[in-house]
Amino acid sequence: MRAKITYAVTAAVLVFYFVLVGSRGVLLIENGTPVTVAFGIAVLILPVIGVWFLWKNTQFVRKANRLATELEAEGGLPVDELRRTPSGRIDRDSADEVFAKRKAEAEAAPDDWRTWFRLAIAYHDARDTPRARKAMQRAIALREGRTIAS
């Protein structure tokens, strides 16, 4: 729940920022000189890119959460079997062990979105965020019946 609140607050702050920057771009365009119009257009491009990025990220999170809910209903969410340090951080060797197991499962069933979902969690626990995101994107695509380029 805390992550959802943090995400919502961050998204709201970004939307406020996009509106603020966009209004400055409009003011520059309204000034009417060729230089300010060029700057105004350039400034308006930034919020457009930001809104697109925020939208795509939000869609990704919503789809991943739907998969988690479905997997939980099936009883297929991975059990937290990771050892932790006294401070509560995940032990790196433990994460690597679980990762090796999850990778083998995904290689054995490459068309099963569930194995890719669990692999994404293992990547995340091993602190490999880019690969975690890629594995989750693959799980989402497999669940939606889309083909994936390897």
Reading the helices and strands in chain order gives HHHHH
Residue share in helix: over 70%
Strands, count = 0
Poorly predicted runs: none
User: Count of helical segments?
Assistant: 5
CA-to-CA gap between the ends? 33 Å
Structural class of the secondary elements? mainly alpha
Sum up the overall morphology in one term.
elongated
The portion of residues forming beta strands comes to under 5%
Rounded to an integer, what's the Rg over CA atoms?
A: 21 Å
The major sheet is characterized as: none
pLDDT averaged over residues:
90
Keywords:
150 residues, elongated, 5 helices
Would you kindly provide a written description of the structure presented here, covering whatever features stand out?
This protein has five helices and no strands. The chain has helices at residues 2-31, 34-74, 92-108, 113-125, 129-143. The protein is elongated, with a radius of gyration of 21 Å. The relative contact order is 0.08.
Strand and helix map with partners:
Blueprint: H1 2-31, H2 34-74, H3 92-108, H4 113-125, H5 129-143
Short description:
By secondary structure, this protein is an all-alpha fold.
